[in-house]
User: What shape does this take?
Amino acid sequence: MTTAGRQRRETVRMQAAELFEQKIKPPEVAQRLRVSRKSAYQWHQLWRDGGEQALTSRGPSGSRCRLSPRCPEKLAVYLEQGPAAHGWVEDQVWTAARVATPIGRKFHVSYSVSGATRLMHRLGFSPQVLARRVAERDEQAVTVWKEATWAEVKELGRPAEVTSASRTRQASPGSRPKGAPGAGAATPRS
Assistant: This one.
């Protein structure tokens, strides 16, 4: 949820607390504030148990960042240096798995691939996906194949009039040939 969304939600909860103090029931609060009845009842329960203070936000949900406060800034600097500066010289791509490695090496914190992805997004980076290529790939042979062989293969398709596309429906037993299975099984309805 965005910061603006959290602030709006907080404002609505405070308005709900004011309405509860005026002895307005949760269904009416839900209608006035345009929220679900479930939310209004949950807020009412919290308000009864702990007052207006219980309805204040406790910050964003989810797990907290496992790095110390200055580490994400340092990580952003490492990412801006590029993968080659950290040992990946074959291409200039930061994958989530690659980002998890320097986090472990430099900050001694283990991150999963999905956790590294979320951390990268928080820092304004997006993980890239490597193009899977065979190490023995011969680009010249691929180009020749595309120009010669693919052109031949592509032209070998069936002409449109040879194909058939029609609706199928079950034939009635009376219209089946005499030797076909089910041919006298049922008499046609009249």
